[in-house]
Amino acid sequence: MITARAAATFEPVGRSVATARSFVRDTLQGWGFTDVVDDAVVLTSELVTNAVVHAGTAADVLCLRTEDAVRIEVSDRYPEREIPLQSSPATMGSPDREGGRGLQLCAALATRWGVDYTPTHKQVWFQLDLPDRPVGTRAAGPQLPLDLLPVTDGRVRVAVVQIDRAGAISAWNEDAEELFGYVAEQVTGKPLTDFAAWPHTPGTSTGIADALRLSRWEGSYGIRDSGGRVTPVYASHLRVRDTDGEPSTVCLLVRDDERAVLQTPLRGPAPEPGTLSEPHTADPFEIFIGSPAPDDLDGLLQRTVERARDMLDGDAAFLLLATDDETELEVRASTGLPSARQRFARVPVEAGPGRYGSARMPAVHEDLTVVPGAVPLLNGTGMRSVVTVPLKVEGRLTGSLGVAAEAPDRYSNEEALRLQFAADRIALAVESARLGELERLRRGSLSFLVEASDLLAGTLDRDQTLALMAQMTVPTLATWCAVYTIADQASEPYLSYVLHEDEERIDGVKALLTKVDPPDPVTTPGARVWAAPSEAAHQAALRTSMRNLGLGEPMTVGTGIGTTLATASAVGGETVVLPLVARNRVIGMLVLGKPSDEHFRQEILELAEDLSRRAALALDNARLYSERMAISQSLQRSLLPPELPQVPGVEVEVIYRAAGEGNEVGGDFYDLFPIRDGAYGFAIGDVCGTGPEAAAVTGLARHALRLLAREGFGGPAVLERLNAAILDEGARSRFLTLLYGELWPQEDGSAVLKVVCAGHPLPLRLRQDGTVEPYAEPQPLLGVMDDLELYEQTMTLDPGDVLLCVTDGVTERREGTRMLGDDGLADVLTTCTGLTAGAVAARIMRAVERFATDAPSDDMAILAMRVPGLED
Asked: PAS domain: which residues (predicted)?
């Protein structure tokens, strides 16, 4: 039988959802059905949201009261929407979907529910049975035999003690005098802490001062009586305020063994007499969150704030998680607020102006306009009233949950208690999910840093290192980044690299940063906020907008409001600077940025700090390598002869290859230089070994040859003095094979040569008829014996003849067990008849390279001289 009804219609606008929640809550509370209010409000919120938001139609809500249940019907005007059957729960979809969750909640929370169709309407209804309790009581227990009733010592005395804002006793009734032996004049004005024996439980942080500030508290402690003995008491505290707004706490105290007088009975129906308890009781966490609970932390937090908002008929809700040191709270989920702007923003926990001072205790703010800045997260959002409660695990602050409304005076201590009850149920699950996420993040961070270290260690090129630094941070750590480098302590930071996850934004960001003074290079570790890019971007966007509206200077060609506003949005969020410090010197700065109104998570900043240390060392290594390579190459180039002189009537070509990456000079060398009018010296040699040590002897030999030849010494004398100079190097000396000669071009087109071959591969002469023959005799090499007796051989190159001189890197070219050798070289040379000196040298080098697939392991030098034929 229906004993009462209430109906209302709500327009298809977002605000109707909150209005519908208030309608249902007020209706059920007016009927006295507070036990089912929360479930009814949550279900109504979901069903009305489906109607006015997703279906886009008006919603009719009808509340019906019977003797033992409440039925609520929600109708919309969109009957063609597909509704899953009760017998097919598997078709309801994921609980994380934007729509369709109302039916899942009906299945989880309602006693009965269903869907009815008419030609013009669709109606979803649910029924909630009322607890079986005697009429007129809020809670009742079963009838008990007399011998099971609580025992009291005569008359039950309830001490009523009132505590003012400062914690001092302001009222003390007669029962308090009887229980503790003090008259009111003895205790009035004294702190309650002078008389209370408060238990200190390890792992909890709530003291008596904290308990007195709570809206409601129950528990046990002791009171020292006038005789000095401690009387165990059970207390119920209620915080109130007078008509002037002055707060105080009313404490009701009884002897601890008479606690049944004050102790709040447990909510929920008792099991039937004579039956065992149910094997599976309802989990309060699942009742609040819904089943199944989201697996991921973000999903759990988002579900939490949505349920909290619905439970208290709020316009917005938010959840913050505490940092490891509990000094700050980080916004992790919100609804009804600009979440993109607030996500990962941080607020301090410590009390003070503009601080989140009530994070460790429940708090109700009836009107935020009276206490601006009390909840910084809500600044500028239009919210007027707010209730916040802490999330605690084993007495440790782990977060804060809040619900806010646009209207003032929406919340009281009753709502704070209900929200605290919900927060206590979810705190452990949230903390467990947070720790799981943190562990996954740390594992991911380690993998990221290992991969980053491998990539950075794989290159010594400065530009490539800069590119790797940027590519590893974007988009993994930041939306955009910039790298500034500092050449030396006297130099200003220079913008070296800019990267944005959207390539079309790179030029705009780079142009903006070039107009901003670079950040100061400081060695202090850690990230620091740099506001200049965001401010410059916003100013540029404002100027562009004013010019576009004709309120400022005309826009120049090539600029546009779209590009400027896009750049402002790209760099308008939080920007941080991390120093790049290597070997106790700041060598640059890594700048990371977020788009408009976004903030960095602390874990990301810590990861970026680790990356910056590795990147700084890699960048400095690349710098040192580049400097040393430049020095090495400069010194090596100084060992090479200058440009070869033009020899009248003789073609000359040289090809030189030094073994080893980055080497320009090795143990092989060549030279061709004028001695005096009509006479030229030439040399090709091979110092034992390769690398810098061999190159040092190369420089000694080449310069000594030029100096001695120009002093008028003949070939044997030149080599004998060079031999002595090499032996003078002592332990640094190396033996040297050398082919040295002097060349005199003749008027008849031939050329006369005088040659000394000191342990070097013999030169080969190619005649016009294709015959090849050695063109000298072997003699002892240099750098081994003190006394050498060398002699020179004189020969003539006829027109068309070619003289080929090579080092042993050519003849000893190997492929497995095969070696090119002198015979192989001669075979290649026979194919060069009629070629110029340049073509001969090129063909020889090509044959050497093709002989084996591996890179040459020895230096190679080829010197080809040709006397042009009569037909050239």
From this structure: 160-190
CB neighbourhood size of 458 (10 A): 11
Q: Whose CA is closest to 656, among 856, 868, 829, 867? A: 856
* Residues 681, 756 contacting (CB under 8 angstroms): no
316: which 2 tokens? 């917005």
From its phi and psi, is residue 730 left (phi > 0), alpha (psi between -120 and 50) or beta?
left
Q: Rounded to whole angstroms, how far apart are CA atoms 736 and 779?
A: 12
Domain enclosing residue 567, as ranges:
459-547+563-630
Angle at 675 between CA 670 and CA 680, to 5 degrees: 60
202 in the same domain as 319: no
Q: For the chain, what is the domain count?
A: 5
- CB atoms closer than 10 angstroms to residue 651: 18
Q: Which residues contact 153 (CB under 8 A, 6 or more apart)?
A: 255, 257, 258
DSSP state of 779: B
* 7-34: b (≥16 Cβ within 10 Å) or e: eeebebeeebbbbbbebbbebbeebebe
Both 476 and 597 in one domain: the answer is yes
Distance CA 793, CA 88 (A): 108
Are 645 and 664 in the same domain?
Answer: yes
Beta-sheet pairing, 736-745 with 196-197: unpaired
- Model confidence pLDDT, tens digit, residues 772-790: 999 889 999 998 888 888 9
Task: Identify whether the C-beta of residue 17 lies closer than 8 Å to the C-beta of residue 53.
Answer: yes
* Residues 681 and 863 sit within 8 Å (Cβ to Cβ): no
Joined tokens for residue 564: 């400027």
Beta strands in 21-93 (DSSP E): 59-66, 69-76
- Cβ neighbours for 256, distance < 8 A, ≥ 6 positions apart: 220, 232, 233, 234
Burial class (CB in 10 A: 0-12, 13-18, 19+), 492: exposed
- Residues 717-773: tens digit of each pLDDT: 999 999 998 888 776 678 889 999 999 999 888 999 999 999 999 999 999 889 999
185 sits in which H/E element: helix 184-187
State pTM to two decimals.
Answer: 0.46
Structure tokens at 695: 């190159």
Measured in whole angstroms, how far is the alpha carbon of residue 53 from the centre of its chain?
A: 36
Residue that has been written with the tokens 């788009």 in this structure: 595
What is the number of residues in the chain? 872
- Average of pLDDT values for 153-164? 89
